[in-house]
Every structure is written in C-alpha cells, then in structure tokens.
Predict the structure.
Amino acid sequence: AERYQIVAEQIRDTDFTAQTELMAAAVKAVQEMVGTLRDGRNLAGIRANQRKIRSLESQADAVLLELESEFYTPGYPPLRAIILKDLFSLNEKVVDRCRDAANVIALVILKNS
C-alpha cells in the first residue's frame, strides 16, 4: 500500500482487479483451512483448500505473465514498466504466501493425525 501511495498518480489508470480477486480467494481459502483446524482434523477439507490455493497460485502466475507482457511492446514507458512490475510482483507474492501457509497447515494436520 505504501508503494502504491508513492506512485498512485502515475498508475491511476491501471486495473489490479484480476490480482486482487485472486488474492482475496487465496486468503479466504487459508481462513477456511484455519477454521478447519479449529473444528478438528478434517484432512479432506484441508486437502481441498490446499488444491484450491495451488490452482489460484497457478492462475496468479498466468495473470502476472499476462500483465507483464505489455511491458515488452515497443515504446512502453520504462519507468511505468518498473513501477508496475514491482507492484504486480508484490501482489502475486500474496498468493504465493497463502500457498506457503496452506502447505504448513497441511503438514501440521498430517503430522498430528
């Protein structure tokens, strides 16, 4: 958010919707996994959410590649490319961290079952 505030005027017309929807879905899946942990050892529910997060992470990678492909068109402003690459990468890392958290939760369940 701090980086966005610094460059908000320069990227006001950028659409982050695809990434934010994937981030929200990944965070929700992790929340469901934590809820499953609290409710007991539901390995099937944990695994289902883990598969969902892996799918979301794969989609996030594809979205990142699509968004960054625009940077390679002739005449694309270099500073804008650097700014957006940084922000797009940070957004994609949110989904990566959700995947990491999901893997840890799955390991905890497996270890304690």
Notes: Residues 36 and 42 are 6 Å apart (CA to CA). DSSP finds four helices and no strands in the chain. Helices lie at 2-7, 17-39, 43-69, 78-111. The chain has a mean pLDDT of 92.
